[in-house]
Structure formats: structure tokens, C-alpha cells
Amino acid sequence: MIQGFLGRKVGMSQVFREDGIVVPVTVVEAGPCVVTQIKTQETDGYEAVQLGFGEVKKRNKPMAGHFSKSRLSRYVKEVKADDIGEFQVGQSLTVDIFQPGEFVDVTGRSKGRGFSGVMKRHGFAGGPRTHGQSDRARAPGSIGGGTTPGRVYKGMKMPGHMGNRRITVKGIEVIHVDLERNLLLLKGAVPGSVNWLLEIHRSVKPSKEPIPLVGLVREAPPAEEPEVPVADGEDTAVQQPENQEAENQETVAQEPESGEPEVQDPGDQEQADPEPEEQKPE
Predict the structure, then answer these.
(1) How far apart are CA 195 and CA 28, in angstroms?
(2) In a 3-state reduction of DSSP, which class is residue 265?
(3) CA 47, CA 229: separation in Å to the nearest integer?
């Protein structure tokens, strides 16, 4: 198994998992890479596999000789492999060597920021904005005493060149692998700008079970409900069985039984059953 790969940064996007969580991802075009040379212990003193990536518009004689048995490549990097006997010069490797849920380390060159001050480069707060401090708003302040120590200590945070250096981000999860377009969806951000070269190495962090994504995985079609046959001349609306219609009619006809007695209006009761008047004795 090869331990490294080459690719270029395409850009950033976001995907949704089945549990409803949105994941920011970096789209990386990984490969296809070609094996341009194999380093052996007998000839070179170490074992490694040299990979080529990218296209070349023009070639010279040294390039034509080195890539005579493989393909012209713009970038060439050496990576480790568990067994170099599994590879041959001219062999093409695709992104299928990675699996979702795997963790990788991505190495790239950060964006260059030019000559930057201490506030942008190191996050300094600057000087006070009052009491006549008109020219010390973004200054670093004192960098050492004149008598003691009488010099500037090594490693003092000062203005200087920012960015454009090699950076490695470790433990990035592989969210999705697109075999048709040779794309890797890596969780979070990676160093570099668009179309810049990236080195992808396998991480020592163990892989985990990936959560499927919504829209990127083909789902099985839903089961179709059986249709109720409709006779000729009848309405195309949903038909209920005859037994069900009869039960519904019986339920409507019967009134609900209740244990409470019915309450009648007192006026109606007097009109219905008038009481006889008592006769006085003469």
C-alpha cells in the first residue's frame, strides 16, 4: 500500500450528512498519478516510489529521458510504500486508494502575505490611541532595553515576511471519494490557494465508520403502493370497499350510548304533565 499521493486544490464547498449536519469540505483533485521511478535499496540506498502529477506543455531532453517509460509530469514527488514490488514504472494510480472515514495529513504551501506588521503577523494589539500617541498605533513597542540587555533577543516577534511557507495539517477526515472525477472531499480547510499542489499522506489516526451523505449516494426508489382497481364508468377518486362503506353508515346511524340520564326542560315538563289543583273544603 502506498502512503502518499498528489493532487491540486479545487476549492471549498459544503455537504449534508444523513443526520442533518452540514460539513464544510475542501474539494481536491487527487490524481491520476503515474509511477515515474522506483527507488530500491540496491541502487539508491532506500526504498520509495516516485509519482508524477500534472501536465507539461513543453519538454526538454532531460525530461524526455526521465519520463521515457512513463508520462510527462509537471510535479514529481517521492512517497513511501509498504512493498515497492507492487508497483511498476508507468503504472497509473487513481483516487480509489482512499476510503471514506479515513484520516490523512495534507501538506501544502500557504498563501503569501508579503511584508506584514506585528498586528497582522502576530496578533499584537498596538499602542494606545490617546495621550499624543499619533505614530505608535500599530507599532510593536519596546524590543529590549538599551543598557540591559543591550541587544535584541533571538526569536523576537517583529515585522517581516508572512506566509508562503510549507504547512502540514494533520488528521483530516475523508468525507467522500468520487471515483469518476478523481475527487476527494476533505473535511475543513487545507493550506494553499486554488490550483496549488497538495501532498496527501496517510495519517496514523485510525479510521472510523463514515456517515452517508445526502444527494451524493444513490438511494433505492420507494416502494409503490398497490392500486385499487376501478370499474368502468365509476369515479377515478379513491374507492373504498363496500364493507367499509356499510360500516361507516351503521356507525353514523347509531347514536353513542351514555350512562347519564337525559335532562329535559322544566317548562316542557309542566306543559306535558300539568298537576291537578287542590280543592278547598267547603
Answers:
(1) 9
(2) coil
(3) 73
Contact in structure between 176 and 100 (CB atoms under 8 Å):
yes
CA 30 to chain centre: 16
Share of the chain above pLDDT 70, in %: 76
pTM of the model as a whole: 0.68
pLDDT digits (tens, 9 = 90+) for 133-188: 888 899 999 999 999 999 999 999 999 999 999 999 999 999 999 999 999 999 99
Q: How far is CA 215 from the centre of its chain?
A: 13
What digits encode the pLDDT tens for the residues 195-205?
Answer: 999 999 999 99
Q: What is the DSSP string of 98-131?
A: --TT-EEEEEEEPPEEEEE-HHHHH----S-SST
DSSP for 141-204? ---S-TTTT-SPPTT---SEEEE-SEEEEEEEEEEEEETTTTEEEEES--SS-TT-EEEEEE-S
Peptide bond into 62 cis (omega under 30): no
